[in-house]
Amino acid sequence: MSEIGVGLIGFGLGGRVFHAPFIQHTPGLALRAVVSSDPAKVQAHHPEVAVMPTVDDLLRDEGIALVVVSSPDHLHGEHAIAALQAGKHVLVDKPFATSLADARRVSEVAEEQGRLLTVFQNRRWDADFLTLRRLLDAGELGDVVHFESHFDRWRPDVAEVWKEQRDGGSWQDLGPHLIDQAIALFGRPQAVTADIATMRAGAQAPDWFHVVLHYPAMRAILHSTKMAASHDLRFIVHGTGGSWIKHGMDTQEPALIAGALPRDEDFGRDPREGLLTFGDERESIQPANERGDYAAFWKALEAALCGKDANPVPASQALAVMEVLDAGLRSSAEGKTVAL
């Protein structure tokens, strides 16, 4: 079988760390070209890959079937539509777009062009999230009544980077991960109550959020701050059968930033196990963690492009995340619960 040619737009943290290594690691995919204003940086990592100065140059390459959009947020919609209209399949980094209207337009163009459109929701393959899914599927917690998901950091100083100035701030940056995980577990919520705020002196965009997703018999709380010196709490899950509390973040991102590769022996291993407390008299236990596996997303995407499996993150699921993002912004601005 011939390999699927892949073109990458952008070689910042996302392109360099989350996309290029996995494209090259996945059988059936071949990274052919990168759009970047810094050819030396690209070729230092991938000397065999062509570096193109513009998106139009990339889209004219008939050897590229899949375009990965890892440009700044405000360009996601524009670049995704251009690639789809050029006849390419498209993977968009999160957030899908900067507005719900733009995300819907991208989805419409994909349908019009008959091309696969997916969004990079890698944290469905975090070790802790995979472990939680296993516990829920096994009925260890019973029916969940309280789900709390944290993505906290200690970054008291405001950095002079575009991500610190993006519209929506942390809610637009980290919110898509937490929303997608909640929807993957519990489905689309009925309503959203959000408080999105700026806590750090000099910050130009929100850096704190506390959002409640309303479900008929449970609540999902999504929380993030950049002012947590103690920031290792990840999940608190209470159910009719017990509770599971997990500290420590998935290890794949820091490992990738440090130069690890998906094929490394210990890649994806999480050494901090969560505590499972039962509602009856059984002793609490620490269930073994699943192994984190971002590569699984890419394997599933390659299979979908070949018609062998389903799209790992279809546009409909990405739009559901965008609906919650949009409702959260409106809820916080208007000081009320927003129904979906």
Describe this structure in words.
This is Oxidoreductase. It comes from Aurantiacibacter zhengii. Belongs to the Gfo/Idh/MocA family. InterPro entries: Gfo/Idh/MocA-like_OxRdtase_C (IPR004104), Gfo/Idh/MocA-like_OxRdtase_N (IPR000683), Gfo/Idh/MocA_oxidoreduct (IPR051317), NAD(P)-bd_dom_sf (IPR036291). Keywords: Oxidoreductase. This protein is α/β, with parallel strands linked by helices and about 350 residues long. The protein has 2 domains: about 5-120, 3-Layer(aba) Sandwich (Rossmann fold); about 125-295 and about 325-340, Dihydrodipicolinate Reductase, domain 2. Helix content is about 35%, strand content about 25%. The protein has 11 helices and 14 strands. It has helices spanning about 15-25, 40-45, 55-60, 75-85, 100-115, 125-135, 170-175, 175-185, 250-255, 295-305, 315-335; strands at about 5-10, 30-35, 50, 65-70, 90-95, 115-120, 145-150, 190-195, 210-215, 220-225, 235-240, 240-245, 275-280, 340. The strands form 2 sheets. It has an 8-stranded mixed sheet with strand order 13-12-11-7-10-9-8-14. A 6-stranded parallel sheet has the order 3-2-1-4-5-6, sandwiched between helices. Strand 2, helix 2 (about 40-45) and strand 3 form a beta-alpha-beta unit. Helix 8 (about 175-185) packs across helix 11. The longest helix is centred in the C-terminal third of the chain and has 20 residues, at about 315-335. The mean pLDDT is about 95.
